[in-house]
Amino acid sequence: MLRVVVVVAVLLVFVYGLVDVIRTDRRTTRGISKTAWIIVMILLPVLGALLWFLIGRPYTIRPTPQPASHPIAPDDDPDFLRNLEIRRRNQAEAERLKKLKAELEAKARKLKGGSNAEDSGDVNT
């Protein structure tokens, strides 16, 4: 019974290690190449699996999440924040220009109104 348990354990470690090597991206393996790891696993099933788990396995076994095509929230998107700041500046500039235009029109009306009064005053005197 003990022999069966040992054989099953060896097979499980070997199969799990081999599948893990096969599923791992070749650029993330450590030590030797992915092909070399598969050869080591086949030639030395238990030792190869142990070496794989200790030396060859990537630091992160989970695949790195791909960046989302769009941010989760608007305040996480730097482009949105940049555009928001640009819109705020444009709006402030538009308000400043509107005030300047109103002041200029008021001065123009004052000058026009003042020159009419002066012109009419000169004619009457």
From TrEMBL:
The protein's UniProt keywords, in alphabetical order, are: Cell membrane, Coiled coil, Membrane, Transmembrane, Transmembrane helix
Query: InterPro entries under this entry?
Result: CLS_N (IPR027379)
Q: Where is the Cardiolipin synthase N-terminal domain?
A: 13-57
Q: How does it sit in the membrane?
A: Multi-pass membrane protein
Q: Where in the cell is it found?
A: Cell membrane
Task: Give the chief site where it resides.
Answer: membrane
* Transmembrane segment boundaries: 35-55
Please indicate if the UniProt record lists Coiled coil as a keyword: yes
Give a single Pfam family match. PLDc_N
Q: Which residues form a coiled coil?
A: 83-117
Q: Which domain of life is it from?
A: Bacteria
Protein name as annotated: PLD nuclease N-terminal domain-containing protein
Q: What is the originating organism of this protein? A: Arthrobacter methylotrophus
Q: What is the lineage of its organism?
A: Bacteria, Bacillati, Actinomycetota, Actinomycetes, Micrococcales
